[in-house]
Amino acid sequence: MMLIPAHHFRDIERKPEYLQPEKCVPPPHPSPVGTMWFIRDGCGIACAVVTWFLVLYAEFVVLFVMLIPSRDYVYSIINGIMFNLLAFLALASHCRAMLTDPGAVPKGNATKEFIESLQLKPGQVVYKCPKCCSIKPDRAHHCSVCKRCIRKMDHHCPWVNNCVGENNQKYFVLFTMYIALISLHALIMVGFHFLHCFEEDWTNLLQAYGPIREETAEARISLHEKKQPLKVSSTECSSFSPPTTVILLILLCFEGLLFLIFTSVMFGTQVHSICTDETGIERLKRKHQPRERTGSWKSVKETFDGDFSLNWFNPFSGLRHPKPLSDGDWVRQVASLSDTENTETTEEQSEQRKDEDSVEVIDE
């Protein structure tokens, strides 16, 4: 329950059939525990597939272009284990963010029977979404892609094909963090590869071809020696041809730099939202409403499900059993309701509407 000032209504879908709670279809039976959440959105599915493809491309270049051909086995093993671990955690976080219910409000629960069961008192209101016919708890917002109201919705991310909300924000934060780390790791390895391996090859080329250039065509080199392939480098840069290797590495640099910048910004934005207890939508709309805010550390612990531990970085742990909404979570207390032109009261109060002491169903 929260204390809010007079509500200013949005001009969306104000048809009578949306405003009448008795017109709402009763909500379907709750899905069985463990049912997978998946949004059937073509754009989101395509973005998710592209995300996996880019990570697997980086995996291919790092392993088969840089690490496996290298003769420094310690360097290859350490970096290979580190990169593969980070890539695995990134893809696991992506799957959890995509397949976890972000906190969807039960669809179609704004029925007359349910509203009456809340036993609203004078001065209390419930907010109804006209699009999905659901009663909206505090800080819930409707997503036009998911077609549901999402609790504590931050934004809809096409890269994970899901909303970022109350139940999956941890996985989205981990996804952005691990993608940023593997991008940085890949860029560092590409830099070392260019500086070390290519520099050594170029040096050997100069050393091998230098004496040849100084001698004339009548030098003491037999025709047989001229036809022999010149062994230049003691360390192979790649099992691919030099042009192919350069192209693959340049593409990896471009991908790594782009994703490093993008995911670092998203990671910082999400951490700021968690610490300030303000979602991205709330920040954009600037809802300066008097509501109770949790402290920074308390909000962080609620998002990552407990005190600081290694489970914070584990995409396989998280909200074991999301807290169900109680009757008080559906109800909001108003300070004044002077603007009543677009409000709807329940049948018991429709004949005796008052500015402050009324039980109302408000379309938001």
TrEMBL record:
It is found in: Membrane. One of its GO terms (cellular component) is membrane. PROSITE patterns: DHHC (PS50216). Its EC number is 2.3.1.225. GO terms for molecular function: protein-cysteine S-palmitoyltransferase activity. Residues 337-364 are annotated as: Disordered. It holds the Pfam family DHHC. The chain crosses the membrane at residues 45-67, 73-92, 171-195, 246-267. Keywords: Acyltransferase, Membrane, Transferase, Transmembrane, Transmembrane helix. It is a multi-pass membrane protein. It catalyses: L-cysteinyl-[protein] + hexadecanoyl-CoA = S-hexadecanoyl-L-cysteinyl-[protein] + CoA. Residues 128-286 form the Palmitoyltransferase DHHC domain. Belongs to the DHHC palmitoyltransferase family. The DHHC domain is required for palmitoyltransferase activity. This is Palmitoyltransferase. It comes from Balaenoptera acutorostrata. The lineage of its organism: Eukaryota, Metazoa, Chordata, Craniata, Vertebrata.
